[in-house]
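Researcher: I'd like a structural prediction for the single chain below. Treat it as a standalone chain; there are no partners to consider.
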Amino acid sequence: MSEIISLFAVFSPHLSTATLRQLCEVVFAGLALTGSVTLRNISRWTPQGGSYRTIQRFYNTLIPWGTLCWVFFRTYLFDPDAVYLFAGDETLVPKSGDKTHGLSRFFAAPYGKTIPGLAFFAVSLLSVQQRRSYPL
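Model: Treating it as a single chain, here is the predicted structure.
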């Protein structure tokens, strides 16, 4: 588990020390977690110093996820001789209810009509030679 956390050292120029520590705690808890993913369960599975309030602070922090994904890719996965394509794709998750943040009506081609749900747009770098996708 500590091998995974040590990969996050490249994030130190882009995150504060406290945010980087909290990220490591959340990742550690997420990998060890059983059951539903809630703030309370995450705080239960964190090592010393991962209180419920600390996890709340982490999720209220603005984190430059695009920058972190790019730094991680460039440091550990990038091959200068490879050919990469930039691709994006949107997906729709049908959802009922009215209290979910981002819930709206979107066109779903399989249904041929608009349905209530959540739309997610993902951007990836595609390695042509390795035939792998690296989501950003």
